[in-house]
Amino acid sequence: MPGKLFRGSSPRSIDPKGRLMLPPEFRDVLVARSDAGGFMLTTYDGCLVAYPQPDWDSFEEQLNRLKSSSRLVRDFKRLVLGGAEEHVCDNQGRIRLSKSHLDYAGIGKDIVLVGQGSKFEIWDQTRFSEVTSQNFDGLAEELSESGIDLPI
Amino acid sequence: MPGKLFRGSSPRSIDPKGRLMLPPEFRDVLVARSDAGGFMLTTYDGCLVAYPQPDWDSFEEQLNRLKSSSRLVRDFKRLVLGGAEEHVCDNQGRIRLSKSHLDYAGIGKDIVLVGQGSKFEIWDQTRFSEVTSQNFDGLAEELSESGIDLPI
DNA sequence: AATATAGTGGGGAAAAGTGGGAAAAGGTGG
DNA sequence: CCACCTTTTCCCACTTTTCCCCACTATATT
After folding, report:
1. What domains, with CATH codes, occur in chain A?
2. Do A84 and B7 touch (CB under 8 A)?
3. Lowest mean pLDDT segment, chosen from A2-11, B59-68, B75-84, B123-132
4. Is B50 helix (H, G, I), strand (E, B) or coil?
């Protein structure tokens, strides 16, 4: 599916008028994947997750196909669908995060944009460094028991 | 099925006269789905659930088709049918929640309106953050066992 | 040095949001 | 059954925020 992918992270900050500029690399990927360059931003794992429009559409369709008979599924949809907002950059490549997004992601002023292949994420800087400073030995071990040996 | 969907959440509050303003995006979806913009609001999962008139009508029809032979079905109808109230926004896009709705949803002053595709929900802020701060890893795993791999 | 691209700042129109006055409706007590 | 009081509704006017665009500075590239 994918040609261009979101990769790498860029530290950013929110300007006095509340605007956040996306790195040009990400903007390029966005226009490559959906020609208008629009994307959806939703909430998960304490950060904001951005999907180019076409990817979001199929994701949403999957969500709507899920049977809503269990409370857990309904709550999951509340988080993901309820967190979804459409975004388009202005002429300078900036967006404005909503109050509830800032809130959910605990975003103060310093931000990291993190490429994740077909999507990217927006993190509060402090939260992100907590995530990345974890010890992953447990996982590596678990994987190696399933015969997966990562070249780390 | 339809084009415009309810998405995203907006934090709101009830004004001194007891009025709650719907976000413009939601109002747009309402008029798109039912041209008068009227909707039904009922009670479930500890929140208020809003259905555009046409969606409600077919929902209600399904409910009425249910055999009322079990107590559980009757109680369910008591909750859902008994909790249903019709609403129309005023010129500024505001509605007034009834005492029993405020009560059922445990609504104090701070509220979140949550888009859920073809419907939206009204939550007390505190209750809603409990919902969204859950850990959904169990669900993700369960889904992936049924062959559904969400792009989260 | 010149040109293109990245990044910053801000003005101003339009939309969103707030508050309140006054009419209508509904409820209560005599 | 009527008069009075309270609550609700409807609409107008004001304030605040958001959005869209333009202009400027800085950085990089050839």
Report:
1. 9-145 (3.40.1550.20)
2. yes
3. A2-11
4. strand
Q: What is the pLDDT of residues B14-38, one digit of tens each?
A: 999 999 999 999 999 999 998 788 9
Cα distances from A140 to residues A148, A150, B73, in angstroms, run 9, 7, 50
Q: Are A149 and A37 in contact (CB under 8 A)?
A: no
For residue B131, the SS3 value is helix
The label of the residue with tokens 């007034």 reads B96
Distance B109 CA to C26 C1' (A): 26
* Chain B CB contacts of A120 below 8 Å: none
3-state secondary structure of B29: helix
| Residue A89, number of CB atoms within 10 A of its CB | 19
| Sign of the CA dihedral running B138, B46, B124, B117 | positive
Q: How many residues belong to chain A?
A: 152
Whether the predicted model's global pTM rises above the 0.90 cut: yes
C-beta separation of B39 from B30 below 8 A: yes
Look at chain B and count its residues: 152
Band (pLDDT 50/70/90 cuts) for residue B2 is low
A45 CB contact with strand C at below 7 Å? no
Three-class secondary structure of residue B94 per DSSP? strand
Q: At A2, is the pLDDT very low, low, confident or very high (cuts 50, 70, 90)? A: low
Count CB neighbours of A16 within 10 A: 5
Categorize the per-residue pLDDT at A22 as very low, low, confident or very high, splitting at 50, 70 and 90.
very high
Does an H or E element contain A24, and which?
A: helix A24-33
Nucleotides on chain C that have an atom closer than 7 A to a protein CB are: 5-11, 15-21
Kindly report the average pLDDT of chain B as a whole number: 93
